[in-house]
Amino acid sequence: MRSADLQTPALVVDADALEANLAAMATRWPGATLRPHVKAHKTTALAHRQAAHGSPGFTCATIREVEGMVVAGLGTDLLLANEVLDTRRLGALVERGARVTVAVDSPETIQAATTGGVREVLVDVNVGLPRCGCAPSDAGALADAARAHGLTVRGVMGYEGHLQALPDTAERARLTEACMALLLAAHADVGGEVVSGGGTGTSAMNPWVTEMQAGSYALMDSAYAAAGVGYAQALHVLGTVVSVAPPRGEMPGYAVADVGLKALGMDHGNPTIPGSQVWFCSDEHVTFAPAEPVRVGDRVLVVPAHIDPTVALHERMHLVRDDEVLETWPVDLRGW
Amino acid sequence: MRSADLQTPALVVDADALEANLAAMATRWPGATLRPHVKAHKTTALAHRQAAHGSPGFTCATIREVEGMVVAGLGTDLLLANEVLDTRRLGALVERGARVTVAVDSPETIQAATTGGVREVLVDVNVGLPRCGCAPSDAGALADAARAHGLTVRGVMGYEGHLQALPDTAERARLTEACMALLLAAHADVGGEVVSGGGTGTSAMNPWVTEMQAGSYALMDSAYAAAGVGYAQALHVLGTVVSVAPPRGEMPGYAVADVGLKALGMDHGNPTIPGSQVWFCSDEHVTFAPAEPVRVGDRVLVVPAHIDPTVALHERMHLVRDDEVLETWPVDLRGW
What we know:
By secondary structure, chain A is α/β, with parallel strands linked by helices. In chain A, helix 6 links the parallel strand 5 (120-124) and strand 6. In chain A, the strands form two sheets. In chain A, strands 1, 9, 10, 11, 12, 13, 14 and 15 form an eight-stranded mixed β-sheet that branches. In chain A, strands 2-3-4-5-6-7-8 form a seven-stranded parallel β-sheet, with helices on one face. The first copy, chain A, folds into two domains: 3-10 and 231-330, Lyase, Ornithine Decarboxylase, Chain A, domain 1 (Beta Barrel); 30-213, Alanine racemase (TIM Barrel, Alpha-Beta Barrel), CATH 3.20.20. Chain A has helices at 15-28, 44-52, 63-71, 88-95, 107-116, 139-148, 169-190, 222-226, 307-311; strands at 10-14, 58-60, 78-80, 100-104, 120-124, 152-158, 194-197, 211-212, 235-245, 254-257, 277-281, 286-289, 299-302, 316-321, 324-330. Chain A is elongated. Chain A starts with 9 loop residues before the first strand and ends in a 6-residue tail after the last strand. At the A-B interface, strand 9 of A face strand 9 of B. Chains A, B: One of its GO terms (molecular function) is alanine racemase activity.
C-alpha cells in the first residue's frame, strides 16, 4: 500500500526517523536504564521495537496501558507512574505473573495498593511540579508505612515535568539538578534500588536517575522540537486538502485540510505545517495559508504540537518509508 | 450500578438535563427543521433520543459518523456537512438504501461525489468563517455544474461558526443576519428546498435556515455556557481525587484528580470545576485549588471547555440520575 492511498486524517510514522530516535536514546540509556513511557505512543507494536533496543521495562500512565502491555507480552517490569485508588485490575495482572509496580504518595494509595494485590511500589516525590508526589521530607515515613503494609518499596520516582520543554538548555540542566537533589534526598530516606524520573527534555542532562522515563523522543512533536532536544520528527498527521480559497479583496488566499482538532492534541496550541502558516483548527479542519499554491486533493503533513494527546485520538498509526506503508499498528493502549 | 462505582475518568450525562435540552431545542425547531449535529456527541444511542424528539435527519462531520448512523438505523436523511474527496464509502451506503447528502464547494468535490456514487448534494457557501464553502457569488455556477454531473442539488448550507460563542447576544444576532443574507443570496442562485446552517449559539436567532444544524445543546460545555445560550450542562467528566497537597510555605494547598488533558478537549482552554480554581492539566491529571477541603478518593465533576473533542476521547458515556447509572452508551462514532 502507498501512503497516498490512506484515508485521512492518518497518523504516519517515518520508519527511519523512528529507528534513529530509538537507537539514539537506547545508546544514551542502555538496557534497563531506559524505562520508555508508553503514554507518548500508546502502541504495543512500537513498545516491542523499544524492547528490541534493549529496554526490558516500561513506564505507564494508566491501568489500561499496563493491561495492554501485559497482553502484548511486555509485562516483565511495568511501572504505573501514577496514583490509583482502585488497583484490583493491577492485582489481577500480578496474579497472572506480570511484574507491576505502582506509585504511592499517601496513606490512601498505600492502602489501595495493598488491598488490590499489588506488591511493589515506588514512593512518588514532588520535585517541583505541583501534581502528584509527596513532600520530599515525607517520603521516608511513607516508605515505612508501605513496608508495614507488607509492600516492597523499590525506591523513589520524581518527575521534573515542568522543566521538560524549557528552551534554555543551561537553565533546564541547572533546574534539573536542583529537582534531582530533592529526589536523591528522599531516596536516602526511602531506600531501594530505583530512582526513576526524567523525560525526553531532560534525558541528556539527568545523570542522577537510575532509570529514565522518556517517551516523546520516539515520535516527537513541535513543542519538544522547539526546545531543541535533538530527536527527529517521526510522526505526522497526514491530511488531504479539501477546499482552497483564492485571495479575494483584502482576504488572503487559504486552504483547508482534513486534520482538525479532533485529530490533534491542542493543549500546546496549534499544529504546524512546515513552510505554511496555520490560522486555526476546527473539529475536522485546519485552515492555513500555504507556502506554495495547493490544489484540492493534495496531501499535507501536519506536525502536532503535543504528541501524547494526538496519538490518543487515533485508532492506528502507519509506519512508512518514502511513500510505502510498511506496517499498520493499532494504537491499542487508549482509554482507561 | 452507582456512579460511585464507575472507573474514572468517565463521561457522565445527567439524564434530566439531557432530556430538558433535547425537549427545548425540539420545541424551538420541531420535526425536520432540526437536523442535530452528531459530531458533538458521537453516540448513536443519544441520536436515537433526538430522533424520538422528532428529528428525522442528522448532520455528520465525518464519513465514519455517516456509516455509524446508518448501522444504527438512523440513515433516513444524513447530511455530511463537510467536503470529502473519496466518497466511495458514502456511495456504498446509498447503494444500501441510506439517504446521504454531501457538501460540495468546488469542481473537485462535485466530481468526487459523482465518482463515489453519492446522488444528492448541498452547495456549501462561505458566510464568513474562513473554512470550507465557496464564495456566495460562485454558488449558482457550482449548482449548475453539479446538476450537469447528474447530481440532485437539494439547496445550500453555510455555517456561521465564528459567531456561535460571541458573548454579546445582540451582536451575535446582528452578525448572524448578515451571514444568512449571504446564504440566502446564494440560495436564490442555487435553488432547492434546503437552507441548512446554524448552531447552538445562533439557534435562537437564526430564523432564515430551513434546518438547524445544532449539536452542542444536548450535552453543553463551559464555552457555550459562558456565551449564555440557555441550555443546561448535561455532561461532566467524573474524576477521582488521587493526591492532595496541603499548603506548604508560600505554596497554597491543591488537589489532583484523574481527569487530564487526554480526557478533555483542550482547544478552548482548561476545564472548570465549579467552585474550585483549576491550575493546569497534564496528560492524566488536573491540578486544582479546591473550594472546600477534599480527600484522596473523593469524586469530582469536571466541566469540559469544549464538548465535541472531549467526547471523541472516550469509549462510552454513562447516563445517570442522582447517583444511579441508568444506561451506558458506547461513543460509537469516533474515528474517521
